Amino acid sequence: MISREHLLQMAEEYGTPLYIYQREKIEAQYKKLTAGFKNSNTKFFYACKALSNINILKIVQKMGAGLDTVSINEVKLGLKAGFAPQHIVYTPNCVHFSEIEEVKELGVHINLDNISILEQFGNKYGNTYPVMIRLNPHIMAGGNIKISTGHIDSKFGISIHQLRHIERIVKKTNLLVEGLHMHTGSEIKDIDVFLQALEVMLDMVAHFPDIKILDLGSGFKVPYTPDEKGTDVELLGKRMKEALQTFQEESGKELEIWFEPGKYLVSESGYFISRVNVIKQTPATVFAGVNTGFNHLIRPMFYDSYHQIVNLSNPKGTERIYTVVGNLCETDTFCWDRVLPEVREGDYLLFKNAGAYGFEMASSFNSRTRPAEVLFSKGKSQLIRKREDLDDILRNQIEL
Q1: Is there a catalytic annotation at residue 48?
Q2: What confidence score (pLDDT) does residue 185 get?
Q3: Is there a domain that residue 335 lies in?
């Protein structure tokens, strides 16, 4: 946790709204993962859709992780940040085949999750370029239906019930399949979900003789409240190692396991600071209106997510009940009836767990500019993205 004094100092120096990321927390989360899966053939690829600032990518690259990408520009960002092509995996969804062709020329690992694209790729490239296939295991998992991606109605992956169709395409086009991919959702606390997915994947291995990689996506849960617990990665690592050893003894085949943690690495490293514009009392509610909205932090409105809120300016004030809302011409409520130390106009409010899908999903709705980003490490702060201004909003507009 960054000290209150440092947080207040950065709020004054860089202005608000402001995103702050603590380098040491990202590194600690990665160490926790690698320790949990020690002595196993496991690799981690950071899912950069969670937070793609190039400075964060460089930190992840220096830690030794790979990069999970979902678009051509994320691939290019990864290469620019120093990731070798063989350490990048590209998992698109509903993209045009031309983008996949462009990515193929960059030499990264490619996941295909569509029968049509699989057939197009096989017809054009045959066995000259290895691919991975994303399967849909029909497993319902995740903390919210909007982040559950492995159930039967999901748009992601090729159904495991279409295995015969996949096999026909692979045989007909001589496609080289080096791995299988699966991602059931986010915010998964129950490790049995991962073990169930692994069992499904292992059942599929016999159908693809060149398989050497099983990519289980991610979905590791991070705690949002003081009494909440995240995914027990140490127990998961132990259970998965046991399952894989049994598989290897029975099949004679050794597999490499990949995970794609995004939120797990960066969520708790992030802090979002806003300033209270007004305290507004109605007959039923006391609103604390801040200088931001869902244009900067959409998760509470979009996912009903909970973020701890801290009154940095008055941490020991008398506790009262507030509904914290934004400054948009739209309903943008961060929380209802939250108990906080007395909030006054001008106070700084801190949102915790803001490192993942905070700035990344920000917009300029209401023509309000996106905030600045700051990296905090070893007691010092550095600006890693300047605050936008009106010129940024107008930059690509063509005035007639």
Answers
A1: no
A2: 65
A3: yes
